[in-house]
Each structure stands twice: as structure tokens, then as C-alpha cells.
Amino acid sequence: MSARSHRWVSRTAASAFVLACLAALHTPATATPPPPEGSADHHAGSQIAKHEGAAPVDPAQLVLDGSTIPGMDVSSHQGDVDWPHWWGQGKRFAYVKATEGTGYRNPKFGQQYDGSYQVGMVRGAYHFALPDRSDGAAQAHYFVDNGGGWSPDGRTLPGTLDIEYNPYGDDTCYGLAPDAMVTWIRQFSETYRARTGRWPVIYTSTLWWDRCTGRVGDFTETNPVWVARYADSVGPLPHRWAVHAIWQHTSTPIDQNLFNGTMDDLVALARG
Fold first, then answer.
1. Catalytic amino acids?
2. Full set of structural domains in the chain with CATH
3. Phi-psi region of 234 (alpha: psi -120 to 50; beta: other; left: phi over 0)
4. Suppose 222 and one of 15, 23, 77, 199 were both cysteines; which one would form an S-S bond, judging by CB atoms 3.0 to 4.6 Å apart?
5. What is the dihedral of CA 266, 145, 178, 74, to 10 degrees?
């Protein structure tokens, strides 16, 4: 190789090296992947309790005269549930976490969902929403496909959309503006309705709902509301709802709820 050719090759290699360095400087860093879905801690109200606190509730102050029906909700956090024990404690309905986002299924769902039914409870499934991971339709389909369906047997409650504080970061409203959040919830709700024939129950807290929907959505004509408030009264309801279906009043020693009605009313909700 001539000296002239050698100089050309050396300059070409040097130029290529410089260009590669410049490209590296202008290439954006790979985004940090989102945390995996499905921590056992993400049960109904787990993030509400963290953000809003949980005052001790004196059971003696709660009205248990037949005008309300005691119930409970569980997730993989509880493991295998002793259903005969809770039936003996007067619980007559249960909600069981089925899914989260589109990447998590409760590994204890079968024992919990079937076990509550076998002991005599009216039961239903719930979905922990992650509105920043996928659209409402995708998560509704995932929920129905993995235990969140409904049947008109009088023992199966409509599925519930659990929508609350973001467990994976500081962005309380998952990066969505109020109008976008309302659209996401409506999309989930309408997809669930199309798949099952029922509108889902919406589980939330008044503070989260009013902040993240901006008090612009109205679901009162379609969706019963299940409100979380760990105090001795249900308090103000989320925007536009005048009456609640279920109140989650404590998470000690397990998530406990009161259905706002008689046993006949609960069965009527199940039957649709």
C-alpha cells in the first residue's frame, strides 16, 4: 500500500471514530423501564391509606342492624383465606383482586374467589387500574379474560374498577389530565359493559377522584360507587354521586366493608 493510500485509510478510520462519538453524544439515553406490575401490596385501598391515613374505627359505632351488610375484600396479600372463619364473623360478601394493569394475575385468585362462593358469600372480582400503562379497553379485556367476568346467578357481583393513587411513583394521577382520566375510566367501563352486560362498580376515594377527574366526569347513572374512607362515617362522596353502594371503612385486621342496603338489595345488585 502506498504512503498516500495509508494516509487515506487512517484519516477515514479517524473520521469514523469521531462520527461515532458525536452520534453517541446525541443518542438519547434508554428510558428506565417501568417497574413490574403486581406487587402483593397493591390491594384495594393500599395507596389510599398511605396518602390519606387510616384512623381507627370503633365497630360499635357502625350500624349493623340489617340496613347494611358486612363484607370484605382480599388480594394475594392475604394468601389462602380462612373463609369459614370470616363467614362466622358475619361477612356476607367479598371482592377478590383478579388483575392489575395487563401484566399481573392474582396467584391466589382461585382459592379466594371460589372459596368465598363455597362458604355462601356473594362475591365479585376487582381490577387495580394502571392508566399510564395501557388504555382502558385493554385493561377491561384483560380483567374479564382473567376472572373478572359476571354471571346472573345472584351470587356474582359486577366487577370493580379499583382506581386510586399511583403505587409506582409520585405522579398521583398517572400523568393524565382530568379529561384524559375521565376518558380512560369511561373506556374501561364501556368495554366491561360490552363484554359482560354490566357496568362495573368504581372503587376510589373522594379526595383522589375529585383531584384526578377534576370533578368533570359523571358516572352516577351507570356505575355504583364503592368509596374508601377509614373513619367512623363515610363522609362526602366523590363528585356527583349522591349515594354509595359500598363503604370500605377499615383495613384492620383485613379490609372490611359495609354494603349500603339489605341482603335482598345485595342479591339484586348481583342479579343485575
1. 73, 162, 164
2. 46-271 (3.20.20.80)
3. alpha
4. 199
5. 50
Q: Which residue has the cell 380483567?
A: 143
Asked if 219 and 190 touch (Cβ cutoff 8 Å), the reply is no
Residue 239 to residue 200: CA distance in whole angstroms: 17
The answer for residues whose C-beta is within 8 angstroms of residue 23's C-beta and 6 or more apart is none
Q: What is the pTM of this model?
A: 0.85
H-helix or E-strand spanning residue 246: strand 246-250
pLDDT of residue 93 exceeding 50: yes
Strand partners, 228: 248
Which three three-digit cell numbers place residue 160? 370493580
Task: Determine the average pLDDT of the residues in 59-82.
Answer: 86
Chain segment 136-189, per-residue pLDDT in tens: 999 999 999 999 999 999 999 999 999 999 999 889 999 999 999 999 999 999
